[in-house]
């Protein structure tokens, strides 16, 4: 039976490989429902608190800071919850031939290098954007700032190393049945989490 577009999107979002069986579908529905309830509750409370702050203090900057901080925290918690639940219920595990373990590790290393490069570029762009927005001055000095370039490179190296190490450690060999279990957690979740942390740190530094 051909997969629908919605099924493909669900599998891509949660990092599911192989068929989306009834067990996985039920667990993903449960995870999605829990996140939906969390987001609805947070949005209602956040709207109420933001309205009270504006009425009582008339301080739009404070209100914006609180709203952005809560939204970033909500995304952070939601993605962390997805990672925890998909790992705890083995939703992203796949079995491959043990002979392919070496190739899988090489694939992870190449992917980690690519992720490190992407992360370095993202951090470089975000740092420049955050530095430029307050005054909107010349961009050339910001683009060639040694500290910005070096911090982006270091961030990319650290992120790539962490992702490569994490993915390789998710491979579990079983010599008895000659199978390898790969816990394939989507790197995009970690990428988003790291970006949130860096954005928050940069905003705090520029306060």
TrEMBL record:
UniProt keyword Glycoprotein, yes or no: no
Source organism per UniProt: Limosilactobacillus reuteri subsp. rodentium (strain DSM 17509 / CIP 109821 / 100-23) (Lactobacillus reuteri)
Keyword terms, alphabetized:
Membrane, Transmembrane, Transmembrane helix
TM spans (from-to): 35-56, 62-84, 112-130, 150-168, 189-206
Instruction: Write out the coiled-coil annotation as residue ranges.
Output: none
Q: Does the keyword Nucleus apply?
A: no
Q: Which InterPro entries match?
A: DUF3278 (IPR021697)
Name the domain of life this protein comes from: Bacteria
Q: Which protein, by its recorded name, is this?
A: DUF3278 domain-containing protein
């Amino acid at each position: 039976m051909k997969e629908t577009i919605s099924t493909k999107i669900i599998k891509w979002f949660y990092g599911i490989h192989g068929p989306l069986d009834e067990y996985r579908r039920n667990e993903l529905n449960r995870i999605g429902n829990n996140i939906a309830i969390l987001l609805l509750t947070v949005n209602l409370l956040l709207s109420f608190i933001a309205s009270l702050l504006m009425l009582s203090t008339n301080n739009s900057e404070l209100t914006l800071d609180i709203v952005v901080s809560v939204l970033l925290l909500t995304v952070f918690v939601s993605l962390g919850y997805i990672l925890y639940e998909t790992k705890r219920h083995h939703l992203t595990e796949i079995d491959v031939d043990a002979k392919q373990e070496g190739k899988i590790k090489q694939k992870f290393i190449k992917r980690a290098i690519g992720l490190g490069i992407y992360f370095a570029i993202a951090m470089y762009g975000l740092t420049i954007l955050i530095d430029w927005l307050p005054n909107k001055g010349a961009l050339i000095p910001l683009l060639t700032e040694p500290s910005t370039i070096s911090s982006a490179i270091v961030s990319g190296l650290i992120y790539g190393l962490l992702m490569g190490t994490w993915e390789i450690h998710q491979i579990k060999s079983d010599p008895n049945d000659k199978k390898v279990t790969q816990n394939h957690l989507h790197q995009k979740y970690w990428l988003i989490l790291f970006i949130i942390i860096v954005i928050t740190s940069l905003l705090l530094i520029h306060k």
